[in-house]
Amino acid sequence: MADSLKIDFQAHGAVGAGDLIVFVGENLKPTPAVAKQIGPKAVDLIAKAAAAENFKGKAKSTMSITAPSALPVDRLVVIGMSGEKEQSKIDWAQVGGIVAGRVTGKAATAVLDIPGVDVTPEAVSDMILGIHLRRYSFDRYKTKKDENGGNGPVRLTLTVADPAAVKKAVKAREGVATGVIMARDLVNEPPNVLGPREFAARAEALSKVGVEIEVLDEKAMQKLGMRALLGVGQGSVRGSRVVVMRWNGGKASDKPVAFIGKGVVFDSGGISIKPGGGMEDMKGDMAGAACVVGLMYALASRKAKANVVGVIGLVENMPDGNAQRPGDIVTTMSGQTIEIINTDAEGRLVLADVLWYVQDRFKPKFMIDLATLTGAILVALAQEYAGLFSNNDELAQRITAAGQATGERVWRMPIGPEFDKMIESKFADMKNTGGRHGGSSTAAALLQRFVNDLPWAHLDIAGTAMGSPQTDINRGWSSGWGVRLLDRLVRDNYETR
Q: Is 6 a catalytic site residue?
């Protein structure tokens, strides 16, 4: 990761210069071990400052004391962790983000001994993840860097109970942070830099960590009959691609699990062109594909004991004289036909062919697709949850649990015969939109026609993956949403024990 942060681990003991970070509970007191380490004068100073600033020690709240006379440090930062209920559901990545956000100098020490909380090596590894994600910024195209952006060189020392165990846990998880950042970088890239061919080349770089890569060009897709996907890209001068990524970390006899990503590198809407205002954001319409690339890196880097297939469909949707039109009918790889009502409902056309290809070629245990598919999902769920659609209750429950564990939350949405009826066409097997109402569910209903009864889930990430909310672990435009969720899903449920 391109971060000037250096992290050290040491046993609890003396603290160095710079910022000192400690944690307190609802009584505003650090643990006895920390109190002994910083001394009674510093403990009294925390109590007096808290009274003066009305600091209650609530979870995620912070208080800073500059040049504390009781300590040989530049600044004492106190982070609240109060409340037993909150402590049982601590989001350690968020805690790491809070720590990173409060470090202002070039050196800092965080004492990870927290009242009423067992700070396990796994918890520390999640904190490290949050620290790296908080410090992420995308400024490669700025000729003048922000010297005060909070991402300057820092040496952060974490004092822990068992440094050796923590180092081992952190090493096992560091690929997840890199995978998230890889996804963020892809989504943030400008569309003139990242076309389908360039995106495919970025994915090919995963071969360095042992991922097998295969790239299908337009000739290969034409031979396979992927005419729905090719129809989306036919208005662009940049050729479409499909990238197949395989990580074989399980038993040879194990069926793979499969992840599919929508990769519309820029979506003008095509002939059904979008309004000009905000169209620049449509460079992020490939966030599903970006997630799959980051996920495959994360799994390969930690040598996940599972067989995993990641497939992304990469296209550009442009409105030239060769672009597909409303009223066109395309024949998908499955043989089913789709009437084009709106060329801006293009992502489902890409996914239709890729879903069919994956289930037909790899016969996986399940398929999960991710796509910035509909604006309707923002109306329903804002930017707090991704929409989850599934034909399998067990898979849906496992995704939901992984979302709760990582903070990348999903909310299950309806899909059924009523929505199928809404996409019936007078001229083809289906049409690519079902009208204004239930837009996310009708899109999912179309996708379901291409999974052939295989366990499947569709994640509509239009609200969570780009233009993302500012949080303690994301200060940029792209969140890299989904990498942590799906890594956790595989780790908890599908690796060989």
A: no
- Tell whether 97 is covered by a domain: yes
Instruction: Give yes or no: residues 106 and 223 share one domain.
Output: no
The verdict on whether residue 122 carries a ligand-binding annotation is no
Q: Which tens digits make up the pLDDT trace of 133-153? A: 999 999 999 998 765 555 678
pLDDT at residue 1 in the model: 45
Q: CATH number of the domain at 14, please.
A: 3.40.220.10
| Contact (Cβ atoms closer than 8 angstroms) between residue 130 and residue 180 | no
218 and 131 together in one domain: no
Largest CA distance in the chain: 81
- Strand extents, DSSP E, 287-422: 307-317, 329-331, 337-339, 367-371, 386-390, 410-412
The total number of structural domains in the chain stands at 2
346 is in an annotated binding site: yes
CA atoms of 327 and 302, how far apart (whole Å): 48
- Six-digit token string for 110: 């965080």
Residue 274 annotated in active site: yes
Whether residue 36 is annotated as binding a ligand: the answer is: no
Catalytic residue among 246, 348, 449, 475: 348
86 is in an annotated binding site: no
Task: Please write the tens of the pLDDT for every residue from 244-282.
Answer: 999 999 999 999 999 999 999 999 999 999 999 999 999
Is 267 known to sit in a ligand binding site? yes
Which CATH number do you get for residue 466? Answer: 3.40.630.10
Catalytic annotation, pick one of 106, 155, 238, 274: 274
Cα–Cα separations (whole angstroms), residue 299 to 177, 200, 209: 11, 19, 10
Rounded to whole angstroms, the Cα distance separating 58 from 216 reads 53
